[in-house]
Amino acid sequence: MVKIKILSTSDIHGYIYPTKYLSTADQQPLGFLKAATIIDDIQRNSLPDEVVVTIENGDWIQGSPFATYLAKHPAEPSEYLTQLTTTLHYDAGVLGNHEFNYGLDYLRMAESDRDYPLLGANINGGETQGIIDAPYTILERQEIRIAILGLTTAYVPTWETADHLTGLTFDSAVTAAKKWVPRLRQQADVVVVAYHGGFEADPASGVATERATGENEGYQLLTAVPGIDALITGHQHRQLADVYQGIPTTQPGEKGVAVGLIELTLDKDKRVINRDARLLSTAAAQPAKWLASLTDTTEARVQQWLDQPIGQLTGASLTVTDPMAARLQGHPYLQLVNDVEMAVGQTDVAVTSLFNDEVRGLGQQPTVRQLLNSYGYPNTLVVERLSGQNIRLALERCASFFDRQADGTVTVNPAFMQPKQQLYNYDLYSGLDYTFDLRQPVGQRVVRLNYHGMPVQPDQLLEVAVNQYRGNGGGEYPMFNASKIVREINIDLPELIMAYLEAHPVIEGHQPTNFKVLV
């Protein structure tokens, strides 16, 4: 008998060190270096009858302040991150949607220094050179042939700017798997699918958990594609590990909080006779110092860069202390972001979001660290021309974020919390006066919507500044889409905010008063 151990990381988002960069001394139970210790231990201590396979499942080169620093400082080797996975002897990689955030040239450069293939069976087009090596790879270990098929969420073009995807097309992951898995069954003893995507339905029961848009197709991979022996997933940042529909499946969270482990036992005829899936928490692991030596010098520069001051703020505090209150009442920090969007986009209506409950906003003398911890996405800015009816529909989607309890307290609608937390899909608007009445049914909660003191008419057209994720319809906002874009500012919003703070040495924070929530 032979036991195959399939290790996977996913959605590391550039969090190499055990920190969220809240301060220079911040320590957190996460990070690739902790995951590396677990992976290295399993690799080095494998038994003669064991085969260890290691897969990086995407969203690797973007997200953390460390990753942002590499992307924004051309003098720094952007391939540092891939050197880490190469040194740790990964066998294959898959691209996540965030790999495309800085464009194809940066992606090619960042992924250039590796000795394992990047797999993408559902990414096609003339520009795949240097980005995708093959649809699949086949490893031969101890006379066992192990096929790994790589897939990426087909929803990438919905979020990403078109110039970051020039010449590329993204097919359904399920369609690609139906094409390739039968072929791989003829060539290999074991077929592993590594999919940077999640589940559109509960993987055990099949009950739908979200609208079927093609963003997540994991349940269909489990049930509609015969011949898969192991399924690695990601993208949703969930922590899942079990045998679903007879297929061992993992999803190891985000930022290196866990390593996915799938174990397959094969008999002498190379048939799978036992299967298991679990997550290995990295919380108690020590960071791999031998690996950190590749990046320690750059990490020190990152910490210095993060503490650079970028302006001065007076008036109402821009520090977020109560995220729920900020969503219900607005907040000076969110108003500042909208002010920047309106100034740069040349509009008087703007939209932004408090991405998660860890956002703390800015202090009186803000730093790069505070800004990136509050707005960590490299979203660019677009201006769209929307009808009053579409704006109302978008606001109804926002109003559905809240649940009013019988005692009048307000909580977050579970649809925005399960199966994946989506706090970033609630927006606050500036330039419009509006009221939500949570006593009304979902879909009928926008009871006031005015622009310049007059009710917004359904056919009235307004220009709205918004980040490109929402502008492309991300977060189930189909009323936004690329066809409505009238202007694009292809500079990341953190850079735009930084430039605004530098251009206005002293900014007075103010509490927005343009909307109310009735409970």
Automatic annotation (TrEMBL):
<keyword id="KW-0547">Nucleotide-binding</keyword>
<comment type="similarity">
    <text>Belongs to the 5'-nucleotidase family.</text>
</comment>
<feature type="domain" description="5'-Nucleotidase C-terminal">
    <location>
        <begin position="324"/>
        <end position="481"/>
    </location>
</feature>
<feature type="domain" description="Calcineurin-like phosphoesterase">
    <location>
        <begin position="4"/>
        <end position="238"/>
    </location>
</feature>
<dbReference type="InterPro" id="IPR008334">
    <property type="entry name" value="5'-Nucleotdase_C"/>
</dbReference>
<dbReference type="InterPro" id="IPR029052">
    <property type="entry name" value="Metallo-depent_PP-like"/>
</dbReference>
<dbReference type="InterPro" id="IPR004843">
    <property type="entry name" value="Calcineurin-like_PHP"/>
</dbReference>
<dbReference type="InterPro" id="IPR006146">
    <property type="entry name" value="5'-Nucleotdase_CS"/>
</dbReference>
<dbReference type="Pfam" id="PF00149">
    <property type="entry name" value="Metallophos"/>
</dbReference>
<dbReference type="InterPro" id="IPR006179">
    <property type="entry name" value="5_nucleotidase/apyrase"/>
</dbReference>
<dbReference type="Pfam" id="PF02872">
    <property type="entry name" value="5_nucleotid_C"/>
</dbReference>
<keyword id="KW-0732">Signal</keyword>
<dbReference type="InterPro" id="IPR036907">
    <property type="entry name" value="5'-Nucleotdase_C_sf"/>
</dbReference>
<keyword id="KW-0378">Hydrolase</keyword>
<protein>
    <submittedName>
        <fullName>Bifunctional metallophosphatase/5'-nucleotidase</fullName>
    </submittedName>
</protein>
